[in-house]
Amino acid sequence: MRTPLLAAPPGAGESVDPAAFRSAMAALAAPVTVVTCYDELGAPRGMTVSAACSLSLDPPLFLVCLDRRAGSHDALVTAPYFCVHVLGPGDEDLAMRFAGPAEHRFSGAPLLPEPAVAPALAAGLRLTCERYAVRDGGDHSILIGRVTGVDAADGARGGLVWHQRGFTS
Ligand SMILES: Cc1cc2nc3c(=O)[nH]c(=O)nc-3n(C[C@H](O)[C@H](O)[C@H](O)COP(=O)(O)O)c2cc1C
Known about the structure:
Elements: H1 18-25, E1 30-31, E2 33-38, E3 44-49, E4 52-56, E5 61-67, H2 73-78, E6 81-86, H3 92-97, E7 125-137, E8 140-152, E9 161-163, E10 166-168
Antiparallel strand pairs: 1-9, 2-3, 2-6, 4-5, 5-8, 6-7, 7-8, 9-10
Bound molecules: flavin mononucleotide (FMN).
């Protein structure tokens, strides 16, 4: 005799209301970073990213999640190197600059003059990363980098936080 199938538990196979999901995600306190690279023509590219976190200690891996529709997406997921600047209190304008019109991002930004594998800003705690993997993340791509260097601008320690659609620290 066959065992009757159990009824699906509550919640199985259901879809969350997108507005409820967004609202719940706004409750997650997230770091604020600016991720930069050079595109295939050597032009600097960068955008503000709060979906960022450490992934592994051995090897040292860090991940950022990039909207596939972002203009910088393709450059960032194909660049051999990228830099993650973990911003701190006082860097709010820089975060908004790198979320605003692309043509204004690097003109006037505090770029370090020394040549580097990716554009380096004199702001925040800087992680230099070598592309390690790119994974599917729905409408985002998960870009994973192997961290090859850590530098801090003037003792910066990060600490700027994006929470409930605003900055805090
Ligand atoms: C505080 C903050 C956090 C953000 N976090 C992300 C993120 O994690 N991933 C992402 O794809 N976009 C994020 N964005 C949005 C991008 O920075 C924004 O869409 C930017 O204009 C993309 O630039 P692009 O289209 O020129 O590449 C964030 C914006 C702000 C202000």
